Amino acid sequence: MPDLTVCGLGLANPLEAKGLTTKWAIELVFSPIHFYEQAADLASLFARPINRSEKLKIGRVA
User: What confidence tens digit (pLDDT) does each residue in 26-50 have?
Assistant: First the structure.
């Protein structure tokens, strides 16, 4: 299982329903990352969905 799946908008919900953590590719296209000064912004784009997924796992009852 991948930690994060970058996909289009149409695939995000079905993949999330299968238990995958997703990030919309379009968000990466329109993110203003131009030099190493914005490296933290790029890292947060990937970290946010992973953190959200971990928080949701805590609330689930097995």
Answer: 988 888 878 888 888 888 989 999 9
